[in-house]
Amino acid sequence: MRILLTNDDGVSARGLVALAERLRDVGEVIVVAPERQQSATSHSATLHKPIRVHPAHVAEGVTAYACSGTPSDCVALGLANLAPGPVNLIVAGINHGRNLGMDVTYSGTAMAALEGCIKGVPSFAISVGPTEGKATQELEVEAAVEFAQWLCLWLAAHPLPPGIFLNVNVPALPPDQIRGLMVTRLGRLRYEDTLERRLDPWGRPYFWRGLLLKEQKEEADTDEYALDHDFISVTPLRADLTATAVFAELNQLNLAQQWAQRRTT
Question: What's the whole-model pTM score?
Fold first, then answer.
């Protein structure tokens, strides 16, 4: 098995290094990861400037490259140019922090898995984050590394349907404190933008953007609920964003016919 490993925290991030070391036992690992922090870059691609790549050291026996581009760029380069042959699986992570609910639309790690899915390669993103009331100062990655290794082997025997990828969140707890696994849907995390106006040393205004999480009730089948109750969350996601139910409804409402009538009046 040949595994392409990437992330959005950078090529030297602890979670990626730990994962590369463990996945050597599963197959050949090729790392193509951003040379610097690329969190919240989503599915962006570098189109208007060169993408530069240089060798990096991640772990013994692992071929690794640092890339000036985004996580999506890393996947594209790995598949098209840097891997020595066909890639069987793409793993994005281990992300430092939770990727829950609508977080996945911002996450460079989750969208790297989407990029792999679009290109027809089985893919999953894996993140580690604190559970409710049990935050730890040090990132606990052992449970995530252990699960990722198992999931790689499981996916080799149980291929995902075309157009589907997985978003995994693991509690930042030691393995013996993980209660189990839940297959979940995306929760409904809601944020408020915080845009603080500041002045630079020359008196020119600029803005610093942040996100403030709003209080809301957890629903028992969501990724947020699973993580906050010490379960690993596995959420299947699809590349096709079509809202199928609404597609049928709009056809039933004769939207195209009504527009054609409007144009002739």
Answer: 0.89
Give per-residue pLDDT as tens, 210-235.
665 655 667 889 999 999 999 999 99
Structural domains of the chain ordered from first start: 2-187+218-264 (3.40.1210.10)
d(CA 214, CA 258): 40
Q: How many CA atoms lie within 13 A of 187 on its CB side?
A: 25
State the Cα angle at 262 between 258 and 265, rounded to 5°: 140
Q: Is 179 left (phi over 0), alpha (psi -120 to 50) or beta?
A: alpha
Whole-angstrom Cα Rg for the chain: 20
Tokens of 244: 């199928």
Residue for token digits 């597609």? 247
